[in-house]
Design a protein that fits this description.
It comes from Ramlibacter pallidus. This is GNAT family N-acetyltransferase. InterPro entries: Acyl_CoA_acyltransferase (IPR016181), Bact_Acetyltransf (IPR050832), GNAT_dom (IPR000182). The chain is globular. α1 packs across α3. It has a single domain, classed as Aminopeptidase, CATH 3.40.630.30. A seven-stranded mixed beta sheet has the order 1-2-3-4-5-7-6, sandwiched between helices. Helix content is 31%, strand content 36%. The model has no long low-confidence stretch (mean pLDDT 96). The protein is of the alpha+beta class and 166 residues long. β4, α4 and β5 form a beta-alpha-beta unit.
Length: 166
Protein backbone atom coordinates (compact mmCIF):
# COMPACT_ATOMS: atom_id res chain seq x y z
CA UNK A 1 0.00 0.00 0.00
CA UNK A 2 1.42 3.37 -1.05
CA UNK A 3 0.56 6.34 1.16
CA UNK A 4 1.00 9.69 -0.56
CA UNK A 5 -0.39 13.20 -0.65
CA UNK A 6 -3.34 13.69 -2.94
CA UNK A 7 -3.68 16.53 -5.40
CA UNK A 8 -6.22 17.77 -7.92
CA UNK A 9 -5.21 15.01 -10.36
CA UNK A 10 -6.60 12.49 -7.84
CA UNK A 11 -10.01 14.18 -7.71
CA UNK A 12 -11.99 11.60 -9.70
CA UNK A 13 -10.83 8.64 -7.58
CA UNK A 14 -11.09 10.66 -4.35
CA UNK A 15 -14.65 11.79 -5.15
CA UNK A 16 -15.77 8.24 -5.97
CA UNK A 17 -14.34 6.80 -2.75
CA UNK A 18 -15.67 9.72 -0.70
CA UNK A 19 -19.18 9.19 -2.06
CA UNK A 20 -18.89 5.50 -1.18
CA UNK A 21 -17.82 6.42 2.37
CA UNK A 22 -20.70 8.87 2.78
CA UNK A 23 -23.22 6.35 1.44
CA UNK A 24 -21.98 3.39 3.51
CA UNK A 25 -21.33 5.29 6.77
CA UNK A 26 -23.64 8.32 6.91
CA UNK A 27 -23.25 8.61 10.70
CA UNK A 28 -19.46 8.92 10.48
CA UNK A 29 -19.36 12.18 8.51
CA UNK A 30 -20.85 15.63 8.84
CA UNK A 31 -21.19 15.83 5.05
CA UNK A 32 -23.95 13.87 3.36
CA UNK A 33 -24.00 11.63 0.31
CA UNK A 34 -27.06 13.44 -1.04
CA UNK A 35 -25.33 16.84 -0.99
CA UNK A 36 -21.89 15.70 -2.14
CA UNK A 37 -23.07 13.63 -5.09
CA UNK A 38 -24.46 16.84 -6.60
CA UNK A 39 -21.03 18.48 -6.48
CA UNK A 40 -18.90 18.23 -9.63
CA UNK A 41 -15.49 16.59 -9.65
CA UNK A 42 -14.03 20.11 -9.80
CA UNK A 43 -15.22 20.67 -6.21
CA UNK A 44 -13.20 17.64 -5.12
CA UNK A 45 -10.19 18.93 -7.06
CA UNK A 46 -10.52 22.29 -5.31
CA UNK A 47 -10.66 20.61 -1.90
CA UNK A 48 -7.54 18.60 -2.67
CA UNK A 49 -5.80 21.77 -3.88
CA UNK A 50 -6.57 23.84 -0.79
CA UNK A 51 -6.21 21.25 2.01
CA UNK A 52 -3.65 18.53 2.71
CA UNK A 53 -5.04 15.06 2.00
CA UNK A 54 -3.31 11.68 1.96
CA UNK A 55 -4.45 8.66 0.05
CA UNK A 56 -3.74 4.95 0.33
CA UNK A 57 -3.14 3.46 -3.11
CA UNK A 58 -2.66 -0.10 -4.19
CA UNK A 59 -1.66 -0.15 -7.83
CA UNK A 60 -3.95 2.47 -9.40
CA UNK A 61 -6.82 2.03 -6.92
CA UNK A 62 -7.51 4.44 -4.05
CA UNK A 63 -8.57 2.57 -0.88
CA UNK A 64 -8.42 5.23 1.82
CA UNK A 65 -7.89 8.88 2.62
CA UNK A 66 -7.62 11.42 5.42
CA UNK A 67 -7.38 15.20 5.40
CA UNK A 68 -5.95 18.06 7.40
CA UNK A 69 -7.66 21.43 7.38
CA UNK A 70 -5.35 24.05 8.84
CA UNK A 71 -6.62 27.18 10.52
CA UNK A 72 -5.52 30.42 8.85
CA UNK A 73 -6.52 33.15 11.29
CA UNK A 74 -3.54 34.42 13.33
CA UNK A 75 -4.93 33.44 16.74
CA UNK A 76 -5.44 29.80 15.84
CA UNK A 77 -2.91 29.19 13.09
CA UNK A 78 -1.12 26.73 15.41
CA UNK A 79 -3.85 24.09 15.00
CA UNK A 80 -5.63 22.02 12.38
CA UNK A 81 -8.56 19.64 12.12
CA UNK A 82 -8.27 16.03 10.99
CA UNK A 83 -11.14 15.35 8.58
CA UNK A 84 -12.66 12.66 6.44
CA UNK A 85 -10.83 9.50 7.52
CA UNK A 86 -12.04 6.51 5.52
CA UNK A 87 -10.56 3.14 4.62
CA UNK A 88 -12.42 0.70 2.38
CA UNK A 89 -13.36 -2.49 4.23
CA UNK A 90 -11.65 -4.72 1.67
CA UNK A 91 -8.28 -3.47 2.98
CA UNK A 92 -9.34 -3.28 6.62
CA UNK A 93 -7.06 -4.82 9.21
CA UNK A 94 -3.90 -4.03 7.19
CA UNK A 95 -2.94 -0.92 9.17
CA UNK A 96 -3.96 1.47 6.40
CA UNK A 97 -5.77 3.92 8.69
CA UNK A 98 -2.78 3.99 11.04
CA UNK A 99 -0.38 4.66 8.14
CA UNK A 100 -2.60 7.48 6.84
CA UNK A 101 -2.78 9.02 10.31
CA UNK A 102 0.99 8.70 10.79
CA UNK A 103 1.61 10.51 7.49
CA UNK A 104 -0.78 13.28 8.50
CA UNK A 105 0.79 13.74 11.96
CA UNK A 106 4.32 13.76 10.51
CA UNK A 107 3.28 16.45 8.03
CA UNK A 108 1.64 18.47 10.80
CA UNK A 109 4.84 18.37 12.87
CA UNK A 110 7.04 19.35 9.92
CA UNK A 111 4.77 22.30 9.21
CA UNK A 112 4.87 23.71 12.72
CA UNK A 113 1.44 22.68 13.91
CA UNK A 114 1.12 22.24 17.66
CA UNK A 115 -2.46 21.04 18.03
CA UNK A 116 -4.71 18.64 16.12
CA UNK A 117 -8.42 18.15 16.76
CA UNK A 118 -10.97 15.76 15.35
CA UNK A 119 -14.38 14.33 16.05
CA UNK A 120 -15.44 10.70 15.97
CA UNK A 121 -19.00 9.43 16.21
CA UNK A 122 -19.79 7.91 19.59
CA UNK A 123 -20.04 4.15 19.25
CA UNK A 124 -17.28 3.91 16.64
CA UNK A 125 -14.96 2.11 19.04
CA UNK A 126 -12.52 1.08 16.31
CA UNK A 127 -11.85 4.70 15.29
CA UNK A 128 -11.67 5.88 18.88
CA UNK A 129 -9.05 3.20 19.66
CA UNK A 130 -7.03 4.19 16.59
CA UNK A 131 -6.97 7.86 17.57
CA UNK A 132 -6.27 7.11 21.24
CA UNK A 133 -3.35 4.87 20.25
CA UNK A 134 -1.94 7.81 18.26
CA UNK A 135 -2.10 10.00 21.38
CA UNK A 136 -5.42 11.78 20.86
CA UNK A 137 -7.39 12.39 24.06
CA UNK A 138 -11.08 13.10 24.45
CA UNK A 139 -12.00 16.53 25.73
CA UNK A 140 -15.76 16.18 25.58
CA UNK A 141 -18.73 14.63 23.90
CA UNK A 142 -21.20 16.75 21.98
CA UNK A 143 -24.67 15.21 22.23
CA UNK A 144 -26.92 15.42 19.16
CA UNK A 145 -23.97 16.68 17.06
CA UNK A 146 -25.43 15.37 13.80
CA UNK A 147 -28.68 13.81 12.71
CA UNK A 148 -29.02 11.10 10.12
CA UNK A 149 -32.54 10.19 9.02
CA UNK A 150 -33.84 11.96 12.12
CA UNK A 151 -31.64 9.96 14.50
CA UNK A 152 -29.23 11.93 16.72
CA UNK A 153 -25.56 10.99 17.01
CA UNK A 154 -23.05 12.30 19.53
CA UNK A 155 -19.51 13.26 18.52
CA UNK A 156 -16.47 12.68 20.70
CA UNK A 157 -14.08 15.63 20.39
CA UNK A 158 -10.43 14.56 20.57
CA UNK A 159 -7.16 16.50 20.74
CA UNK A 160 -3.50 15.74 20.11
CA UNK A 161 -0.92 18.11 21.61
CA UNK A 162 1.99 17.94 19.17
CA UNK A 163 4.17 20.10 21.38
CA UNK A 164 4.22 17.39 24.07
CA UNK A 165 4.29 14.16 22.10
CA UNK A 166 7.38 12.68 20.38
Amino acid sequence: MLIRMLGPADATLYRALRLRALREHPDAFTSSYEDDRQQPVEAAAQRLATHAFWGAYQHAELYGFVGLEREHRPKNRHKATVVGMYVAPEVGGQGVARKLLEALVAHARLNGLESLVLTVTEGNAHAQRLYASAGFRSFGVEPDAIRVAGRPYAKNHMHLDLSRTP
